[in-house]
């Protein structure tokens, strides 16, 4: 929020005040360090941020949005608004319009955070780039990301999440993207929107705020996006940006994008698609092959997303940040295609928020678990459905109810020529296995 004064901020909401102090930070959590900052008291299902104004003042807040008709707090400038959350979103839209960067918006069931990271680093080779931190992709997180953007930002790379209809539309209209991505259509949150068809409809709300000359980029291999229009990236023969994998090892993948060779030092066949989105974006911004490749060489993904490390003498792939059937099958396929390993071990757990089809979707993962996978350790109550889907007798399946019991088993897999995959929904916190 550089060079934004209290006077200017207040004027956006019809309040006249002669206060030239700069607002340097913004926070919705009263515990955050917020020196010379704006505090936004979000009203939640169980917590009302207005109740914590004194704590916010102690943390340095000098101005706050304040719901109308409440008694005004002391010791801080209060800007009366109908809704602090709506005011936060409106302030972000005004600030974004002032800076006027190019905006890249990204949504999708899987891969949006990795795609965001790759796009930001590729575009960062040429432009001053600002991106969503972590997964600040909600109706609160995205405005916070925008308001924390430096004034010299040339490109804003914004991730957009959803768990129902209307949410992506709101964020898209706030951000007004120049380029909008739908990375894929999975199964997460399907119960809220009526299955994969509903997910596709909700994700395509990203077009709502797309600039008139903006570009939509989608997964060419997803039938539900076939009629979406835009620029299509994938392995399909009709794709505008066509992919072809040349080689995949633990250390790197080599692939072609429209017959140009690229290398990605991030593990995972599905990460190749995410890199292809970054290539497509770079090309739309006028970057050349060598500049894009330099960016891909610097890619470091968010922790626990196909993160590579050694585990004793074994190679470990920590993809435990979250899981859906689509992303889990993709990770399994990656382990199956890696060269140089005689033992391939999958450590998988429950997947949540899958709705009424959760049994079939767990079984779908099981169908993908075939040789050359040698061992599969399944954790949790729902993982039994993964086991039910495994039909290849060459796979040694072990089931345990808790992460703690699985941890005892892992010692036997710390051997040379072994690769181990960790993947489950966030609620299982599977990374505890190797902490």
UniProtKB/TrEMBL annotation:
One of its GO terms (cellular component) is cytoplasm. Its main location: cytoplasm. Keywords: ATP-binding, Cell cycle, Cell division, Cell shape, Cell wall biogenesis/degradation, Cytoplasm, Ligase, Nucleotide-binding, Peptidoglycan synthesis. Residues 106-281 form the Mur ligase central domain. Pathway: Cell wall biogenesis; peptidoglycan biosynthesis. One of its GO terms (biological process) is peptidoglycan biosynthetic process. Residues 305-426 form the Mur ligase C-terminal domain. Its EC number is 6.3.2.10. This is UDP-N-acetylmuramoyl-tripeptide--D-alanyl-D-alanine ligase. It comes from Exiguobacterium chiriqhucha RW-2. The gene is murF.
